[in-house]
Specification:
TIM Barrel, binds coproporphyrinogen I, seven-stranded parallel beta sheet, 12% strand, 9 strands, alpha/beta
Length: 346
Amino acid sequence: MTASRKPFLRALAGETLTPPPFWLMRQAGRYLPEYRATRTQAGSFLDLCYNPELAVEVTLQPLRRYGFDAAILFSDILVIPDALGQRVAFKEGEGPVLPPIRSARDLEGLDISGLHQHLAPVYATVAGLSKAIPASTALIGFSGAPWTVATYMIEGGGSKDFSHAKRLMWSEPETFARLMELLVEATGQYLIRQIDNGAEAIQIFDTWAGALPETEFRRWVIGPARALAERIHAERPGVPVIGFPRGAGILYEAYVAETGIDAVGLDTAVPLDWAADKLQTRCTVQGNLDPILLVAGGEALDAGIDRILKALGKGPFVFNLGHGIVPPTPPENVARLAERVKTWRG
Ligand code: 1CP
């Protein structure tokens, strides 16, 4: 394979770049007035995800403003349950709502056979983006990790303590394992199709990884991430995989060592020197500015950016946040961040 010239892909392949490439989780979204306008035009949030023309447009909006090194497909992790037949609704101001899966019987209602037909508009968005993005910008495809997607499927939406998901995991282990197997298979197929339509790297979001105790983390966070990374590496060699096991704590080390991912997304709590020593020696690291610093702005923002660049900029690194941009973020603070990262000289 010829070495890619796109800075983001070079960093994922293990090169140290000064300044490092950068993008931000949730870089498209409600903090941008032009996103809110397109979103109104689309109707519901899912209508926007399934409208290739408008989904391409909202993906490009933050690139025009800030010149990020990567574009991330505009979609959501919950299109997978939706495509398996567990219909998802986004209630205004409340987040996602799904009819919960709580038993073997509920599970029987799910069906993988219509997956690609349902997700065809998402694949069309990836193909459209692949043509529309600037030549030096890389295209990231993504999915939720099976555990995080399963929490929404079992809880029927967002949750504070994941009590239904954990109860199913511990009291009906066979049902839970079947759901996880279905998600690993559907997610693997989905990511391969994104790659075939032009995605150049994949990020797997395990937002709720930190909710699991060690034994279950190893089985249901590390296990599926390893299966997905192995499948992508075997079937589409050369496409890098970024894992984001948010809240993993010191289990970040086992996650990196045992999954075979190419890069790891650090949440805001990961100590920088520890990450440089224990993780960056094994793979590229990405992160981890606190998204609320982007709301606060000013010197606190500058200092936060500088600390991260200093600690992680000497090895393979992609600058990012430790979690997604929040809606109250002033767009001018994102411009301030972009300028500061792009002009960093080590
Ligand atoms: O009203 C709106 O416009 C909806 C807000 C919104 C947006 C902009 C949702 C609903 N999803 C998204 C887009 C989205 N979601 C992207 C697009 C690309 C980008 O980053 O620019 C991505 C990658 C996601 C992934 C996602 N969705 C995650 C994992 C990452 C993370 O932020 O932790 C999760 C957990 C979701 C579920 C979800 N979707 C939307 C909401 C409000 C939620 C969270 C619900 C909860 O808090 O439990």
